[in-house]
Amino acid sequence: MDKTTTLLLFFFLFTFLTTSFSKNLCNQDDKTTLLKIKKALNNPYHLASWDPRTDCCSWYCLECGDATVNHRVTALTIFSGQISGQIPPEVGDLSYLQTLVFRKLTNLTGQIPRTIAKLKYLRSLRLSWTNLTGPVPGFLSELKNLQNKLTGSIPESFGSFPAKVPDLYLSHNQLSGYIPKTLGNLDFSKIDFSRNKLGGDASMLFRANKTTWYIDLSRNMLQFDLSRVVIPKTLGILDLNHNGITGNIPVQWTEAPLQFFNVSYNRLCGHIPTGGTLQEFDTYSYFHNKCLCGAPLDSCK
Ligand SMILES: *[C@@H]1O[C@H](CO)[C@@H](O)[C@H](O)[C@H]1NC(C)=O
Ligand SMILES: *[C@@H]1O[C@H](CO)[C@@H](O)[C@H](O)[C@H]1NC(C)=O
Ligand SMILES: *[C@@H]1O[C@H](CO)[C@@H](O)[C@H](O)[C@H]1NC(C)=O
Ligand SMILES: *[C@@H]1O[C@H](CO)[C@@H](O)[C@H](O)[C@H]1NC(C)=O
């Protein structure tokens, strides 16, 4: 190779490398919002990769969608870091979020910000193992989207977004008060409120015409009568252990394809209905109630 060819080769290699490395997919609005979020969380080391000089789609703790959504930020997952403060309300400005996770952050305090209700593409909301307090906010019922509200102004490609209620994981927090009645209007696929301090009624979360698969309300202070609660015919996982639930287990519950079931440590009474999968669980799914009886527990007197 003569000198010119070598130089040319280097020139092309250089151009190729610089263009491919400086390719910036990040949406400017998303970048601005993310930097506000970082600041609101006091610039934690956990978010050190969030450097304004770089493409935000390369930052840790988040994902951008593909070209069909113009590489907008679709997932924000902040997990197990040294993070103190409250959930910044700016998360509601990441309009294309499908997944929002704040998990294992025991210094995360305060309430769930109202702006989360703006996230109309949200599929999964997981705020777990934090010190978030306050009631389960009623505005979460605004997350139900949008099946019939899609308008002509939304590009065709967005049809790939599921128009459905997000999975809701709010376990391991300090949430208190009652579950809002309005959440009963939503058809969740998965709902996990376990290990909080929720009281009162949860029967609104159950309804025959829902398609819910997973309900975990264990380790709260819920108090309601189970006797007339009808469960969805799709329910596979139900955990109600450690609450103050009264009444008896309805016969209708034998119609659900339950694979995991736990009603232990409540104040239930009466016959365990025979049939379905209810006898496939052992005594530990039923023990520590007031006067439940029948298989797999001792027979009723
Ligand atoms: C939580 O805050 C306390 C007090 O500021 C601090 O000592 C501790 O390291 C923090 N923990 C985490 C996981 O951020
Ligand atoms: C967070 O909750 C844990 C118990 O779950 C508690 O020990 C800790 O002190 C709490 N931290 C704050 C900052 O409230
Ligand atoms: C489900 O049943 C409730 C009453 O139990 C009703 O208000 C609601 O509209 C029904 N939903 C659907 C999707 O049929
Ligand atoms: C049900 O919950 C109780 C109380 O937490 C626990 O001891 C038991 O092992 C659980 N049963 C199953 C099948 O997980």
Task: Describe the structure concisely for a colleague.
This protein has helices at 3-21, 28-40; strands at residues 62-64, 73-79, 85-86, 99-105, 108-109, 124-130, 133-134, 167-169, 174-178, 190-192, 197-200, 214-216, 221-222, 237-239, 246-247, 260-262, 267-271, 291-293. It is α/β, with parallel strands linked by helices.
Description:
By secondary structure, the chain is α/β, with parallel strands linked by helices. It has two domains: 25-148, Leucine-rich repeat, LRR (right-handed beta-alpha superhelix); 149-301, Ribonuclease Inhibitor (Leucine-rich repeat, LRR (right-handed beta-alpha superhelix)), CATH 3.80.10. The chain has two helices and 18 strands. The protein has helices at 3-21, 28-40, and strands at residues 62-64, 73-79, 85-86, 99-105, 108-109, 124-130, 133-134, 167-169, 174-178, 190-192, 197-200, 214-216, 221-222, 237-239, 246-247, 260-262, 267-271, 291-293. The strands form four sheets. A nine-stranded mixed sheet has the order 1-2-4-6-8-10-12-14-16, with no helix packed on it. A hairpin with an 8-residue loop joins strand 1 and strand 2. The chain is elongated. It starts with a helix and ends in an 8-residue tail after the last strand. 33% of the residues are buried. Mean pLDDT is 89; it is low at 149-162. Bound molecules: 2-acetamido-2-deoxy-beta-D-glucopyranose (NAG) (4 copies).
* DSSP helix fraction: 10-25%
What is the number of helical segments per DSSP (H or I, 4+ residues)?
A: 2
Query: How many distinct folded domains?
Result: 2
Largest beta sheet: what is the strand line-up? 1-2-4-6-8-10-12-14-16
Which regions are unreliable across 5 or more consecutive residues at pLDDT < 50?
149-162
The CATH superfamily of the largest domain bears the name Ribonuclease Inhibitor
Series of H and E elements = HHEEEEEEEEEEEEEEEEEE
Shape by Cα distribution: elongated
Helix vs. strand class: alpha/beta
Mean pLDDT: 89
